[in-house]
Amino acid sequence: MRVGLLVNPVAGMGGSVGLKGTDGVMAERARALGAQPVTPDRSRDFLAHIPPTLPVRWLAGPAEMGERWLRDAGLQCQVVGETAANTDAGDTRRIATEMLRQGIDLLVFVGGDGTARDVCDAVGTGPAVIGVPAGVKVYSAVFAVSARAAARLLEAFFHGAETGEEEVLDIDEEAFREGRLDARLYGAMRVPEVAGDLQGGKEASDSGVSGQAAKREVGEYVAGLLQQDVLYLLGPGTTVRAVADAVSVEKSLLGVDALRNGELVGRDLSERQLLDLLERYQVARIVVTPLGGNGFVFGRGNRQFTPAVIRKVGIDNVIIVAIASKLRGIGSLHVDTGDESLDEELAGYVEVVIGWQRARMMRISV
After folding, report:
1. Taking residues 114-118, what's their average pLDDT?
2. Above 70 in pLDDT, residue 326?
């Protein structure tokens, strides 16, 4: 089996520092803010979970675009293409096109929605693909739920799993940085269809009258539970924003904000800023809502909640909120923090607040 590995070296770097992506000049800004590369660990995790007996002939992008991580794992590969020191979207498209020409059976890419669009431009619905989630924006349906799940998809593909077309989304970059999620269908690629390992696409939030009323109910109920002198870290999403609305505080839609004693003490915060607040205020809670359509609690759209932040707050101090309609069709919740041991600690049954004195037990699977 001929498998291509293509890694976007800068994907995901903006997440921990509160940026909404690393496209173009944003990668340099992320570095200036102290962001560390995400894709090396994701690439290593993916490769570490592939059975050593699986007969794979690897083709890889040069250096950090794939070759380095295969060599580090002790795997031989054929290097495809050349790049300058700083890679860009054009390199991704060009190398993916060359891999297609050389007859790959499957292309594994490590990145986010921007990388998915570049790969889609190059291969379309030709060879099957597997997206290893590593970007700030990972809303397209071609991604595995984690690096470990991506390895399972690769094995399933080798053993004859069926493939089907899944959507690639185009996220409006400027709108996203302004706190608005504006997504449209960009294209489709073929992926191995394995339930539980493929994340599925994001569904739009219920903005109808009933949906808004349900969010208000959740928001008002949770607001009534807020305690004095406790720091509440409010994640992205309209349901969490309803909690802020209930205490008359204006919250950013796509950022992580901090609330204490009815007042905002931080807005659109980075990992470093969150950790600083947690040093100042010893008792804290995280309030999050699952991503519509695929049920991610951590690891999609809220990468400011890094393993360090979650551990500092404590896994027993996470409040999950959602309206009932969002949970329909979601068999289980997911987490993909980038720390497998933390993911395992978070796994299991949790309570999801869905209304006034109403909750649903759901399982977090990894």
Report:
1. 95
2. yes
Predicted local distance difference test score (pLDDT) of residue 62: 97
- The mean pLDDT of the chain is 91
Query: Which among 234, 245, 230 has a CA at the least distance from the CA of 269?
Result: 234
For residue 216, the 8-state DSSP code is H
The CATH class, in words, for 2-192 is alpha beta
Tens of pLDDT, residue by residue over 198-251, are: 987 766 565 566 789 999 999 999 999 999 999 999 999 999 999 999 999 999
Alpha helices in the chain (DSSP H): 26-32, 39-48, 67-72, 89-101, 113-123, 147-158, 173-177, 209-225, 238-246, 271-280, 307-313, 324-327, 340-346
Judge if 2-192 and 209-365 fold alike in CATH terms: yes
Count how many residues are written for the chain.
Answer: 366
Q: Which of 103, 208, 143, 176 is nearest to 8 (CA)?
A: 143
The H or E element spanning position 203 is none
Q: What is residue 233's three-state secondary structure?
A: strand
Give the model's pLDDT for residue 19. 57
Q: Three-state SS across 242-262?
A: HHHHHCCCCCCCCCCEEEECC
Of the candidates 101, 102, 100, the residue with the CA atom closest to the CA atom of residue 129: 100
Distance of CA 60 to the CA centre of its chain: 23
Q: Among 2.60.40, 3.40.50, 1.20.1740, 3.30.450, what is the CATH number of 209-365? A: 3.40.50
